């Protein structure tokens, strides 16, 4: 794809170098709207504009002011916390993009649930918690235990907690309320997504707990067409918290199950977006009653998902989304026999990182596509549910088969050991 001289605007809280380099390679003029421009290399982009993402009116005004001087060819929804504002701006300017109501629904899981249930999309039972002090009554009346309580517009595992009893509900909801009461300019290590949640009337929901295999389906849906980029299976997680340690493709699903979840994902996106163009990352869990949609973000998958898709297919979802937003047709994904896995070293408890061993494993394994070490000895680190960043490191590995990348993942997880000193011992 060549996008030379196309001006692309992106509203993001923490844009990655991978995103910037991807667009730079095809000649895009990149304009970033971010809360903090320090640390960004201005050599790689046309401009970086500081905007308060929690102040939607000011953010919109700054994007429109830039567009008046230098018009955008496309606005890319990449950061989940900005999907709704991106859709609103694209519609105002007259650019292609997701339907505003769809982007807003994807940011509020109860609105999405309502839409899906009305359109016969399989979903777990979900109820709004209007009064957090009495939410246990809603759970016991409509769902039963175990249940999941989560922020309606949560963006990661930090805002999702499994509860098995009324007492566990009280403890969990107290934590969610603390998250909602934090200031938007809190330390990003504790909660880098605070600016993106708590804006809607329904702030907390309860949901039926779905045991079983969980997958993420990444796709683009446009008028009369769609493209599945990949289906990634997550590591088994039973709660109470759900820090992600692995996603892998190919999955353990049968071809029939893959077809089923792919169609359910597309149907779920279509129910929200009708025939307007949108990328989506749809999370689905298999249950005894079949697969059910947990949530859908109307943007390409986060973390290493885009890089994993590019490794497997040669197609970059960022560029494919830009391609269709510029009015071009979707490209065909050509299947191949590669396997890919992105994983994370989960921080087991909060405290001070006093020792790390085993990092040499990354130099010993073939097809380590990328590694990101997030902490050094001496750092204060946080585990769930205290932090939105409960990982010491991320890595992306490729290989010829599912078994090969699983073995690499197992070796990495077993090799890297973290020693964490309790905060009380340091004090």
UniProtKB/TrEMBL annotation:
<dbReference type="Pfam" id="PF13535">
    <property type="entry name" value="ATP-grasp_4"/>
</dbReference>
<dbReference type="InterPro" id="IPR052032">
    <property type="entry name" value="ATP-dep_AA_Ligase"/>
</dbReference>
<dbReference type="InterPro" id="IPR011761">
    <property type="entry name" value="ATP-grasp"/>
</dbReference>
<dbReference type="GO" id="GO:0046872">
    <property type="term" value="F:metal ion binding"/>
</dbReference>
<keyword id="KW-0547">Nucleotide-binding</keyword>
<feature type="domain" description="ATP-grasp">
    <location>
        <begin position="113"/>
        <end position="326"/>
    </location>
</feature>
<keyword id="KW-0436">Ligase</keyword>
<protein>
    <recommendedName>
        <fullName>ATP-grasp domain-containing protein</fullName>
    </recommendedName>
</protein>
<dbReference type="GO" id="GO:0016874">
    <property type="term" value="F:ligase activity"/>
</dbReference>
<keyword id="KW-0067">ATP-binding</keyword>
<dbReference type="GO" id="GO:0005524">
    <property type="term" value="F:ATP binding"/>
</dbReference>
